[in-house]
Amino acid sequence: MRIGIDLGGTKIEAIALDDAGATLCRRRVPTPTGDYRGILEAIVALVAGIERETGVSGSVGVGTPGALSLRTGLIKNSNSTVLNGKLLDQDLARALSRPVRIQNDANCFALSEAIDGAGARAESVFGVILGTAVGGGLVVDRRVIAGRNRIAGEWGHNPIPWPKPDEWPGPPCYCGKTGCIETLISGPAVAREFQALTARSSTTAEIVRAADGGDREATAALHRLADRLARGLAMVVNVFDPDTIVLGGGLSNLKQLYATLPALIARYAFSDGVETMVVPAVHGDSSGVRGAAWLWPASA
Fold first, then answer.
1. I need a labelling partner for 252 at 20 to 30 A (CA). Which of 150, 183, 230, 246 fits?
2. Which pLDDT score is estimated for 199?
3. CB 282 within 8 A of CB 247
4. How far apart are CA 130 and CA 139, in angstroms?
């Protein structure tokens, strides 16, 4: 049995999968905000509860914001800042009395979709999370490519490619730079720019509904989103050239993206044609926790 943990900023979700990928059980608790010791205890309790329910001990994989630093072994780059500077894998291994595998949550998303999701038939998959932040993960032959510095797939913290005059130098990003892709195509970024341009305070979901109703300003906002997303993904195609790009997160529910992105990506990519498929995630919000479970092979 494989147990996956999705350690989010507001919730911690756990799932147990059998060797075929079928769900045996799942549990969810609120994340103890700002409480590292409380987070460890919550994960231990989730694992114990699953093992009591199933009567089986399982391997444990964890998807978390940020990544383990190769240099120090500490969590870095997490927007759940209480995790930064912590020996999360070692602390959990001691608390659970077994080895624990940890990967960035976007890597887990990509792995889930590559194994038995939208990219299951692809050799290489780039998984994209379009939500409150913009993340990505690369999987080749059903194996996460984390990179030498554990930052492979972090396309959201590159500058927007081929910037237009009104996109330069771009909004400030929490990473300390300006003009990152994340500052222009995340859900909050879309809503923030819409308010700045129209003086209308709307959520991204409200903008989508307005566009569906024929609102010109809302339609223009979604056109900007699609073009920026295509430019960012064209950069990914130029560097990784994946077989399939799988979209997840709230913005991945925009059906019009799948009709417009292929042609837009082809316009910007360095190729005479782009065969890369752009598809929505099969497992949706469950991809992260499922991918964490899949960090262990069947023989583990």
1. 150
2. 97
3. no
4. 18
Scanning the structure block, which residue is given the tokens 């999701």?
117
Q: Are 226 and 260 in contact (CB under 8 A)?
A: yes
Residue 46 neighbours by CB distance under 10 Å: 21
Burial (CB < 10 A; 0-12, 13-18, 19+), residue 12, is buried
CATH 3.30.420.40 residue ranges of the chain are: 2-108, 120-281
- Does residue 300 have a pLDDT over 80? no
Tell me which amino acid residue 194 is. Answer: F
pTM, whole model, 2 decimals? Answer: 0.93
Q: Is the peptide bond before 169 cis (omega within 30 degrees of 0)?
A: yes
Name the CATH superfamily, with its identifier, for domain 2-108: ATPase, nucleotide binding domain (3.30.420.40)
pLDDT 10s digits, 80-106: 889 999 999 999 999 999 999 999 999
Q: Write the class of the CATH domain 120-281.
A: alpha beta
